[in-house]
Write a structure and sequence with these properties.
This is LAQU0S02e01002g1_1. It comes from Lachancea quebecensis. Pfam families: Perilipin_2. The chain is mainly alpha-helical and 271 residues long. The chain is built from eleven helices and no strands. It has helices spanning 3-6, 9-14, 18-28, 31-48, 51-55, 57-77, 86-137, 146-150, 152-169, 184-230, 237-259. It is elongated, with a radius of gyration of 34 Å. The two termini are 29 Å apart.
């Protein structure tokens, strides 16, 4: 940039805003912006040093002072401009969602706790009392429920297959013990809950990977173009076009390698 632009009071004040700093850092990494800046600097310097620009210098200074006062007013009206970053804005935007999520979670826990205290426990106690009476007076089931206990031979093989499938597809997680359940049906419920607990993190990772795939590939494409530009002596239009062709060839070769049905090709990741 020219000296006149560098000495601009409004520009210097704007540079102190974190949001503008982050925006500048982001744009500085875009190949198109790098090429535009490199080719525009000589033109801007030439215009800034021309006689018409010098004649308009007083008016430019007045405009710069007005812009500086405007930024000063905005800074006083919203002091957060001096501290806020894009990460802070994202956090602030998620506050209502996080609060709602916590509230729903607490309400669910209270509801489940009430259901366990006032519904399940009394019903289970009555069933246990009736089972004890039935075992003493009618038929001894050895502490097992009469109906559910009678189908253990049919449920046990299903439990083994469910447990094997869970370990095969989702190896990370706690084991479900073989003992401690009065029936195989009760163990089925425990195995099903274990399956869900193991599957949820895996599903979350897959959803995250799928959602981030466009960003990751865009970041990779940006890195490939920047790497080609860095190898050029300068960013003139001729060299920039040569770097663009090289980057496109690299990306095309990667796409062909990735599309091959066989072969151990590393996944494209963001750099």
């Amino acid at each position: 940039m020219s000296d006149s632009v560098e000495s601009s009071r409004s520009v210097e004040r704007a540079k102190t805003f974190p949001l503008l700093q982050q925006t500048h850092e982001f744009l500085a990494q875009l190949p198109a912006c790098r090429i535009l800046e490199a080719n525009a600097k000589p033109i801007i310097s030439s215009i800034a040093s021309s006689k018409p620009a010098k004649w308009a210098s007083p008016a430019a200074k007045v405009a710069d002072n007005i812009a500086d006062k405007g930024l000063e007013f905005a800074e006083n009206w919203a002091p957060s401009l001096k501290t806020k970053t894009y990460q802070d804005l994202c956090h602030d935007a998620l506050v209502p969602f996080n609060y709602s999520k916590e509230t729903v979670g607490k309400a669910a826990n209270v509801t489940l706790g009430a259901a366990d205290t006032y519904v399940y426990e009394p019903a289970h106690a009555r069933m246990s009392t009736f089972r004890q009476f039935y075992n003493e007076k009618v038929y001894d089931t050895n502490g097992k429920p009469l109906i559910r206990g009678s189908i253990d031979p049919l449920v046990a093989p299903c439990n083994k297959r469910l447990e094997a499938a869970t370990k095969a597809y989702f190896p990370d997680g706690e084991e479900v013990p073989s003992n401690g359940y009065n029936t195989e049906f009760s163990r089925t419920l425990a195995l099903s809950a274990n399956f869900v607990q193991r599957a949820v993190p895996w599903v979350n990772r897959k959803v995250t990977d799928l959602a981030m795939a466009p960003y990751n590939y865009t970041s990779h494409v940006n890195a490939v173009f920047n790497h080609s530009l860095d190898k050029q002596e300068n960013l003139s239009l001729t060299n920039s076009w040569a770097a663009t062709r090289e980057a496109l060839c690299t990306l095309n070769q990667e796409a062909l390698q990735y599309a091959k049905p066989k072969g151990n090709n590393p996944n494209i990741t963001a750099q």
